[in-house]
Design a protein that fits this description.
heterotrimer; A: mainly alpha; 44% helix; rod-shaped; B: alpha+beta; three-stranded antiparallel β-sheet; 11% strand
């Protein structure tokens, strides 16, 4: 529905009494322009807001006015009425969309063909056939229009019949099924056993004091070292007997001391290269 | 009604038909959307026959306040249309469709699959994008197969949703479809006038002749 | 059933009870919430008797796939309790067994009966409870006899189900380490310590080899 813009003069009366017989619809904004010209005239400008939708629609409206079965329609009368209408609009300086004019031209042609009893040339279609085709188009449009109306008026979901108001949500149960193939199984076993085969690559840890172990050993001792003292004094006693153990312990203890210094728990000093490394607890 | 209570053969492990009917009833009662036969079947135990169960259920609900309706390939329980007046609280405000949209919908439903050009030919005006959009948005139409003609234009068809909304079991049940077909109004050309006298178009020609003479 | 089709007195303007039953049926079907008797009554035409209509409807749905049930003071259609399982849709998600689980399973298959500690020794990592649980749940392993050693630990063995799934007639058909190597499944270079004599697993492996030889 297109409502025309309102002008101050409500219930605007413009020209075109003939409009009474042409309930004018404004279907598309560009369909009829300049309708607002010369509002001074006193005649009613009737605007049927339901709107014609193109020339075929207008023709159908005109055909209905013949008040006969569409199959009994006089195409010639119809053409005349359409042309009259167009002329009327032109007289009132209402500009019509191009497709209305194209239809007018075609109907004028059809009219002349129908009226002139001359035989059509070979490449021309019989005028009666053209007329029949137009009648068919009108009838078909009318039929579709009726079908649409009938459809809309039929029983409809949510208006006349209803679906279940409280559907129960079907619960989706996810069922996880695990799969493994025999290949997976064999490869897994191979993998496990291969890992076994490679364990000897790891070096034996029997002769190594880990930094972690050294840290655990040193932490409580260092806390009590309030005065500077040789770091080596803090090494675990049991690791001193064996040469290899002693070397590992020295390295680990040094690394652990550095770590503790980094954490700000102790301080380290060495007066010169290869001199004794001294440590003490950090004073707060 | 005794036949409903038939028991299954001991060799047959599928549930009794009476039981299957109950299952279909429960499954369809629980959903608002129509379910296809295979969707129903998938939820039933193996060896069930949803088609038979459905047919029996349709019968059982005949004339009741709730009916079992077929919607295309699917099935759904719907309240009887004559009781619609009781459901004011449930009534969904229907969006008013423009005349163009209603006509376009009718053309798609009765002529499907139909191309945009064909719709325009029938209506005599171009179809605005918005019209198709609204119908698509409502879920009443969808794209069909492309037409195997130059340009391979897309076609439009109505959806199961459309059938559901308008309470149709299939597009064959569209009101007046048969008459339209018989009168040739669903073809793209007027019916051939071999003998003009016996077609509805004859009067047109006769009328024209009169004019011609008058002129 | 004839009494259902009673007609109303001409003086009585209320609908026939049969009709009222249909109304209640439709109303309760379409409503989103359970309704009280008075709510139902309010929706029906004047002069209706929702209590009787409800009672008849309850009876009608007795034993059906859906039931008319009382929810507090209200009424609603509900799926029959015995059909609740139909309201579940099952989706089966295939998931690959985790690496840990496959390895554990392989170890059990090759070394059964095997204790958890032994599995851990072979894998070099602890075996989580979840891994064992998944295998138990799949029915691929089960508890074997307790080992007659300190603490009498439980052992695990594979099940016929396992053999079935992997298409084996016996665990003895599983290829040995050497064969695995030969078939390229075990890509590592043969280790110089072929017999792994210093692991606690040697006896078990030897045991399997014996079995294999016996077979």
């Amino acid at each position: 529905m297109i409502y025309l813009p309102r002008t101050p003069s409500a219930n605007r009366r413009t020209r075109a009494r003939a409009m009474d017989s042409f309930p004018l619809d404004i279907s598309e904004e560009h369909a009829f322009e300049d309708y607002n010209d010369g509002p001074a005239t006193s005649e009613t400008f009737i605007v049927d807001v339901d709107g014609y939708e193109g020339p075929l629609d207008l023709l159908l409206a005109l055909a209905r006015k013949q008040k006969v079965d569409l199959r009994m329609i006089s195409v010639l009368d119809l053409a005349n009425q359409y042309l009259q209408f167009i002329e009327h609009m032109n007289r009132n300086r209402i500009r019509l969309a191009a497709n209305y004019l194209v239809m007018a031209a075609w109907l004028a042609y059809l009219k002349s063909r129908l009226l002139l009893p001359e035989k059509p040339t070979d490449d021309e279609i019989d005028a009666d056939e053209l007329a029949a085709r137009l009648a068919f188009q009108l009838e078909r449009l009318e039929a579709m229009r009726k079908c649409g109306t009938r459809l809309m008026a039929s029983d409809r979901l949510g208006k006349d019949f209803f679906s279940r108001g409280c559907p129960e949500v079907a619960e989706t149960r996810r069922h996880v099924s695990f799969t493994a193939s025999i290949l997976d199984l064999l490869q897994a076993y191979a993998r496990v056993r291969t890992r076994d085969d490679f364990t000897p690559l790891g070096c034996s840890r029997n002769h190594v004091l880990t930094v972690k172990q050294a840290l655990e050993h040193l932490r409580p001792l260092f806390r009590q070292a309030l005065e500077w003292g040789n770091m080596l004094r803090f090494m675990p006693r049991s690791w001193l007997a064996n040469q290899a153990h002693c070397r590992s312990a020295t390295a680990s203890t040094f690394a652990a001391a550095l770590e503790l210094a980094k954490r700000g728990q102790i301080e380290i000093r060495q007066s010169e290269s290869f001199a004794e490394i001294q440590v003490r607890a950090r004073r707060s | 009604m005794d036949d409903l209570y038939q028991t299954v053969d001991s060799v047959d492990c599928s549930p009794a038909m009476e039981e299957q009917e109950r299952m279909v009833e429960a499954i369809l009662f629980a959903t608002a959307e129509p379910l296809t036969v295979s969707q129903i079947g998938n939820r039933m135990p193996l060896g069930c026959d949803p088609v038979t169960a459905l047919a029996r259920l349709v019968k059982r609900y005949e004339g009741r306040g709730v009916r079992l309706s077929r919607v295309g390939n699917s099935w759904a329980f719907r309240t009887a249309a004559d009781l619609g007046y009781l459901m004011q609280t449930e009534t969904v405000v229907q969006r008013r469709l423009s005349r163009a949209a209603v006509e376009t919908l009718a053309i798609i439903a009765y002529h499907q699959p139909v191309t945009r050009t064909e719709i325009e030919e029938i209506r005599g005006v171009t179809v605005s994008r918005g019209t198709i959009d609204i119908l698509l948005e409502l879920g009443w139409i969808k794209l069909g197969r492309r037409r195997e003609s130059p340009g391979r234009p897309v076609t439009f068809v109505v959806t199961p949703n459309f059938l559901d909304h308008f309470g149709l079991s299939s597009t064959r049940d569209l009101p007046g479809l048969k008459e339209l077909r018989e009168t040739g109004l669903l073809s793209s050309e007027p019916s051939p006038r071999e003998d003009a006298a016996d077609t509805g178009l004859a009067p047109v020609a006769a009328d024209i002749d009169q004019h011609r003479m008058a002129a």
